Amino acid sequence: MIKLNGIFKYYTNKYRKTYVLQDVNLEIKDGEFLTVMGPSGAGKSTLLHILGMIDEPDNGEYHFNDEPVHRLSEKKRTELHKHEIGFVFQQYHLIDELTVYENIETPLLYQKIKGAERKAMVAEILDQFNIVAKKDLFPNQLSGGQQQLVGIARAIVAKPSLLLADEPTGNLNSEQGTEIMELFKKLNQNGTTIVQVTHSEEKAAYGNRIIKLLDGRIS
């Protein structure tokens, strides 16, 4: 599904390059559940953002289902992202002006899914996450844990083929965290490829492969 060859990402400051990712080579098979671990500042979130086509590498090649992402126009990359990828952010990234229902509905609007089908898909996920009673609330009326649940619901509502999760259970209590990991496990068993970043050995164990990043390199 995914092939990264020689990926570099750096920032230039006063003629000096600071490398965030260095010569990353990685293959992710369809249906894998991969965990990325490493200390803070190792480049884990940057790697996820590149996989999610939210950021671009400075050098290297990225193939997604045989599409050369590194050669695609921004428009093509955005289309691919919209239809294939769900992203769970560490900081929720919910839209403050939209209700829980509208936040979850957003990816379906981008995909131009018709009204009745959209309604049914959002209703199903609200039910699955046990947040039907919260559907008309705004993000600032929710606790951090509830916001994260909405963020995860939004990421999976459109049934993406690839789910990227950056510390998905970091703001949840242990019970909610376990529920989410069990949900990810189920999604993976049903065919969704998952890449998660976590510091937790316990959460990492849900995946079927672990890679470690250190100073921007896979160690």
What this model shows, in words?
With 219 residues, this protein is an alpha/beta fold. It has one domain: 3-Layer(aba) Sandwich (Rossmann fold). Helix content is 35%, strand content 27%. It has 7 helices and 10 strands. It has helices spanning 44-51, 74-84, 100-110, 115-128, 144-156, 174-189, 201-204, and strands spanning 2-13, 16-28, 33-37, 59-64, 67-68, 85-88, 162-166, 193-197, 209-214, 217-218. The strands form 2 sheets. Strands 6-7-8-3-9-10 form a 6-stranded mixed sheet, with helices on both faces. A 4-stranded antiparallel sheet has the order 2-1-4-5, with helices on one face. A hairpin with a 2-residue loop joins β1 (2-13) and β2 (16-28). α3 packs across α4 (115-128) and α3 (100-110) packs parallel to α5. The protein starts with a strand and ends with a strand.
